[in-house]
Design a protein that fits this description.
By secondary structure, the chain is α+β, with helices and mostly antiparallel strands. It has six helices and seven strands. The strands form three sheets. It has a three-stranded antiparallel beta sheet. α2 packs across α3.
């Protein structure tokens, strides 16, 4: 049976150095959520991606996401799809040691339903 990982919002993935790629629609949603113009949001929270192919979220000096606060993700309801996809659709080296997601054995149908729900939420929001 497949294993579905239920996120516990521990923030381990947000503290792992890396690159959170952003689409234009994600920038628009996050800026609106924070009550900022897109220009202000871009200047305050983003940087050029390593491949220079777009924007990514900045990191704090320790490598954590710039939007990670003491209360968790500052844009949780509108967080980027890459963040929504963790831990089931992507993982980072060592994530199994730091991520506190709860493993749930589910049927193949239930697994497919849950993954489709994760992806559908991103697609619904992209149409906003």
């Amino acid at each position: 049976m497949p294993i579905f990982l239920e996120c516990q919002r521990c923030g381990a993935c947000c503290r792992w150095p890396g690159q959170v790629r952003l689409s234009e629609a994600e920038i628009t949603r996050m800026a609106a959520f924070k009550g900022q113009s897109e220009t202000d949001f871009i200047q305050q929270f983003t940087r050029l991606r390593w491949d220079r192919g777009g924007l990514a979220l900045q990191e704090q000096p320790d490598g954590a996401c710039v939007l990670l606060t003491g209360e968790g993700c500052a844009v949780q309801p509108v967080k980027p799809q890459q963040c929504k996809d963790f831990p089931n659709l992507w993982q980072f080296p060592g994530s199994e040691k730091t991520c506190q997601a709860i493993s749930r054995e589910v049927s193949a149908e239930e697994y497919a339903r849950r993954i489709a729900l994760i992806r559908a939420k991103g697609n619904d929001r992209a149409a906003d």
